[in-house]
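Purpose: get a first structural picture of the assembly so the mutagenesis plan has something to point at.
Setup: two entries, given in the order below. No constraints added.
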Amino acid sequence: MDEGFLSNVNWDNMLEATWETVYMSSIAIVFTFILGIALGLLLFLTSRNQLWSNPVINWITAAFVNIFRSIPFIILIILLIPFTVAILNTMLGPQAALPALIIGAAPFYARLVEIGLREVDKGVIEAARSMGSNQFQIVFKVLLPESMPALISGITVTSIALVGYTAMAGVIGAGGLGDLAYRDGFQRNNADVTLVATVITLVIVFIFQGIGDLLTRKLDKR
Amino acid sequence: MIRINDVSKVFKTKAASINAVQNVDLNIEQGEIFGIIGYSGAGKSTLIRLLNLLEVPSNGSIKIADYDMMALRGKELRKARQEISMIFQHFNLLWSRTVRQNIAYPLEIAGVPSAKRKARVDELIQLVGLEGRGDAYPSQLSGGQKQRVGIARALANNPKVLLCDEATSALDPKTTSQILDLLYDINQKLGLTIVLITHEMHVIHKICGRVAVMEDGKVVEQGAVLDVFRNPSEEITRAFVKQITENDESLEVIEDQLDDANGTVVKLTFIGERTEKPFVSELIRDVDIDVNILQGNIARTKDGSYGTLFISLEGSEDKVKAALAFLENHEVQAEVITHG
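Result (structure tokens, whole complex):
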């Protein structure tokens, strides 16, 4: 084997691993965004003095969120294996990591969504009610648009955590940069592979952060 | 137009129950501007929210136009609310929407098709004087402009009633005046019934025809603005009248001058007096007395003059008597403060 710098890097493998990481992260971000907003809305709307004020549903939702937020991700992946097999019929490849990624990240994001919704001025909701808005309109024309910058900066933070989670998805054979850095880099003592995988991961994180910051700035008209 | 009958609102907390509004009766006629004045905590904010059921009354009945408000539920209530608009102290605009989009909001709620919506928004922008600001976001507007957006938004669905919740309390005096003028214009032009609440007397005397005074959740006095101000029967009403007829500053200044004044110092109070005639010069001419104006604070409005004027009458006792008689004949409230 060549002893030159980066000589141990198999660029085909590196490219494939990069693709797997981007694939897993992107799909997980989209579903986390949707599921997180749904959970966050439920948390917010069922809390005291809100539109659907309901202590029982609020308690159940909060319990669900807190439990899944507390389980370490590496354990969550393993716990969810039967669930993944049931819905995807496979335990292999990057998509097998998706259920665990989404279920791990959405509760965390739901709390950020809840905080964002609480920031919406109560007076604006009152004004919307005074104009004869129904609850659907208050949610989709007032609450979500008014909290959008907070929702976007929240999903940015979450997406970076998700990139970190994908590194652990190698445990169940999902591939990705983390898996490559561990097996090809650490276990075979190829420091350059680890280095390249780390740099690419950082670049992905910076791109996500950049897109998130740009969107937040564009949307924030306050 | 609005019939409020024996309406009360009790807020129950774990510790206690608070009677925010108690047994209020009000009749507000079509096309009038009705003011409700009270200090903060008097229950006026709660009362105005009972009208469009943002707060549900504990008991009593509320009829607005043809709606028996408390019988309305869900869709019917939302429909009625489109005819009972509201503007707010802090404007409550959607900051994520432009001026145009904010004004279009109630039209979207009412299901107006987009082409008609655009035409209506243009009309409203012109009505409230916001030409050229349609694509600005609320954060780029001044307080007065924000309230204009609030007013345009409230008028979008051609309401029958406009509720104003301290609509000028966050604005400076000049802007307050402009917004009140706009509300008055709209009332005249569209025949809209306006109910406003405020803690500022000048808001009442500038545009309201009738007023109700609130204290501790109850309406303690009501009637035509001029009548209530001329003959206030409650202590609180007198305090409000003082807000416009005198200010603490003028009293302090006059106290210094009292020591130096030679003649008889008289305090003239104007509450909606028709002082078109130059009565001071007439007084000097008719009675042949020297009049020294010490201090004055007079505002003229559509219903006459409001304020106080301190004058010193210098001359013989007979002349002073004659001067006081002259003032009485001219229906000016005169009060002798010191004799020279």
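The CA atoms of residues 13 and 19 of chain B lie 11 Å apart.
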